[in-house]
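ok here's the first one, seq then struct tokens
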Amino acid sequence: MLQAGLTAPQVYEALWQTLTGGKVWQGELHNRKKNGELYIEAAVIAPVLDDSAQVTHYVALKQDVTQRSLDQQALQASLQEKVALLHEVHHRVKNNLQVMTSLLRLEAARSAEPATQRVLQEMKGRIFAMALLHETLYRSSHFSSVDLAVYLRQLASQVLRAQSARGTAVRLVLDLTALNVGMDQATTWGLLVNELLSNALKHGFPDGRAGVVTLQLQPGMATGQWCLSVHDDGVGLPADFEQRRTRSLGLQLVSDLVRQLGGTLDIGPGPGALFAVTFSPQVPFVN
């Protein structure tokens, strides 16, 4: 066995300090065979002491781990390649969704029909919710899960800014506890919160009325349950709210999204309006 010169000097220093201290050293060494071939060996070296605690010789157990090391390097390189690919995928999806929101904004500006403008703005908000999730994942090192509190905080702030541009004097209160969920569930939550906040800001505060909208995400009463709620102190729900639920695309979408989450939707009495969803978080997939 010949030294290949690839093992750092610090490794040998630590090896001898350990052995001269009467302790067992273990680690990896880069060596060269007599035929010139390089290899990596995992070694366990122990000093043998006599009755006076003096080192008489050493015993070593060694194993050629060259192939294992090469496999680990290949696996790491493959992992880095996949991470880079996922970054690029989320980046491209986010950019494409942002192009769609820009097109909808242009079409809304061109239209002279208030109803058409309203529909296009609502579609823009829904697409933005999905684009923001991909941007959050793109900026993160984790692709299988997202902190729902961080994501919803960004989304809620953007929804409020969009409504404030139309003269809404409403304050947003956020009470969000950190909760990691899978990407599929985060997408559904983004769409759901976008609908609930948009409805509260649009219908709860007519004629520029001031008020407060509160978004909460907290553990529920039962073990493993969580509750997300949107509450406002606006004018409250109309008397014919139940009839309107069947005709409103936004409220139908809310019901469908809650069902997709496997949750339950409770609509509280006034004053104001309260929508609360109780659900079980989706356990993120761990690579």
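and now the second one, same deal
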Amino acid sequence: KHDIEKKLNDSSEHIEQIQKENEFNEINLNYLTNELIKMKEEVNYLPKVSIEQDYHPFINEISVLSLQISKLKKWKQNAITVAGGNRKGQESNQFNRPTGICIDENKNIFIVDSGNHRVVEWKCNENEGQSIAGGNGEGNRMDQLRYPIDVIVDQKNNSIIIADFHNRRVIQWVNKNQQILIDNINCRGLAMDKYGFLYVSDYKKNEVRRWKTGKYNNEGVIVVGGNGQGNQLNQLNNPSFIFVDEDQSVYVSDCNNHRVVKWRQGAKEGKIVAGGSVNQLSLPEGIVVDDLGQIYVVDGLNHRIMRWCEGKEEGEIVVGGNEKGSRSNQLHGPSNLSFDVEGNLYVADTFNHRIQKFEIVL
């Protein structure tokens, strides 16, 4: 029993070191999996021996990491069009420059149909979507939107929060009832952390501000930028989409600086975690960061999705990158991305007016 505990401790230290170095790969995965199998076999031969509860989180962590590595490894390069793709238009099976996108656990897709001034819910395997916000023409009435760009969906409360771009407001729709949360803001990207704080990027003020849920009658708190337009580490230049991780670190697509920056909570400046030159990223847009710290970013003008590991000087192409076009292995000015529960990758293929699904290779 003592020998097994020692092996568990050694493996635990090993995985902690790998995570610190951000170098977890398939070789590490196979090694640790085999070690667990050996330990399990040894336990089976011991009379009345059980692994102490303290080690269960470690074993669970191995399982989760194993799942993530297999999920986030590779995708089929030819996509399936799961929404739109019927040319530009305003019918229920069409889009006009879709931008924001998110997927629920049932694989229903929520799409910001920017040029049609609406948010659409497209249920899994359906041939058309349903407008759930806007869709009443371009305008600034409470029941209208004007070139919306991003969305957060809170299904438990039947609520969606929208960055209503040209109306310069963040507006919430709850069961067809509307409430302006934040006004007079040049909003581009939205995010919400696990504590319910709302984050909004302001592309003109070159900053990201944070508000506590339900308390929007203030200016919020600057958590990124706010030091004017520029390319210094404490500055932004036209920030677009944002992502907030479990530690409340904020990742920002710093669009005109062609980089993604990470600001830890309370930081006075950011760290470049992807891009940094136009040769690496060109007008980055949507971003998602997984639990391993891998950064998935829409490389807009290069018509591809990139993956960067924090600390690496170069990223790798995940999908696209075959010049702009409308074939199944091409994208045209994509804006955003999302993953479903199985790890399939969805891309808002903006100027092809469609949502593309790239299936995970298991």
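notes on #2: The first strand starts at residue 80 and ends at 84. The helical segments are 2-21, 26-44, 56-71.
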